[in-house]
Amino acid sequence: MSDADYFERLARTVLDGDEEEAESVAKAAVADGLDALECINRGLTEGMNRVGELFASGDYFLPELIMGADAMKAALAVLEPALLDTQQREVLGRVVLGTVEGDVHDIGKTLVGTLLTADGFEVTDIGFDQPASEFVAAVKETNADLVGASALLTTTMRVQAQIIEELKAAGLRDSVKVMVGGAPTAQAWADSIGADGHAVDAIGAVALARLLVDAPPSPEYDD
């Protein structure tokens, strides 16, 4: 089977919401020596993009969206160890990562955490539906260099701004960089709330994180 066939099969498992098949295809891909990062980017992410398009057009509904996300998680559980084995890096910085309060989307955030870890960052993932205070508490606990806050709903974007304000109130803003992301966000939004940067996808988030900690560019994540 060609690499392209594997990528298409991985995408199809996400489209079909088939967790068992996603795990099986991911294991076969690893056994055949495929690059784990390419499997994620060209297979799973492509599949989730298609699911998102079908959901937006009304052809898929919430159950299909959740099933697709679960299939992607099943494959990621196989691919992440392979990714870490092949892409070990020196520790570049400590990151607190989470999805903001009121938002339960975590696939994109989880993928960002996986790639940041593979690239050499120490990641503390606080999960989803997290208030600004939890981000601040995690920064204090881990002495983080970076905060990554994801918001997938326009109604929850405001929490990204609250995180920055609470970091200021805690006297931590000068010691930690804040990057924001999520479908409704943009660089203009990041600028308006005083964030240090915005990323449109997981690859961009890794490149941005490297930039914010003054790490040299990586060929895997930087153009």
Explain this structure to me?
The chain is of the alpha/beta class. It folds into two domains: 3-86, Orthogonal Bundle (Methyltransferase, Methionine Synthase (B12-binding Domains), Chain A, domain 1); 93-212, 3-Layer(aba) Sandwich (Rossmann fold), CATH 3.40.50. Helix content is 57%, strand content 11%. It contains nine helices and five strands, in the order ααααβαβαβαβαβα. The chain has helices at 3-16, 19-31, 36-57, 62-86, 107-118, 132-142, 157-169, 187-193, 202-212; strands spanning 93-99, 121-125, 146-150, 177-181, 197-199. It has a five-stranded parallel beta sheet with strand order 2-1-3-4-5, sandwiched between helices. Strand 1 (93-99), helix 5 and strand 2 (121-125) form a beta-alpha-beta unit. The radius of gyration is 17 Å and the shape is globular.
- The CATH homologous superfamily of the largest domain is called Cobalamin-binding domain
Please state roughly what percent of the residues sit in beta strands, choosing from under 5%, 5-15%, 15-25%, 25-35%, 35-45% or over 45%. 5-15%
Biggest sheet, in brief?
Answer: 5 strands, parallel
Return the domain count. Answer: 2
Q: Enumerate the spans where pLDDT stays under 50 for 5 or more consecutive residues.
A: none
CATH topology of the largest domain: Rossmann fold
Radius of gyration: 17 Å
What structural class do you assign from the helix and strand content?
alpha/beta
In percent, how helical is the residue content? 55-70%
Order of helices and strands: HHHHEHEHEHEHEH
- The separation of the N and C termini measures 29 Å
Number of strands: 5
Strand order of the largest sheet: 2-1-3-4-5
Number of helices: 9
Principal-axes geometry comes out as globular
Which whole number gives the mean pLDDT? 90
At CATH level 2, the architecture of the largest domain is: 3-Layer(aba) Sandwich
Query: What is the CATH top level name of the largest domain?
Result: Alpha Beta
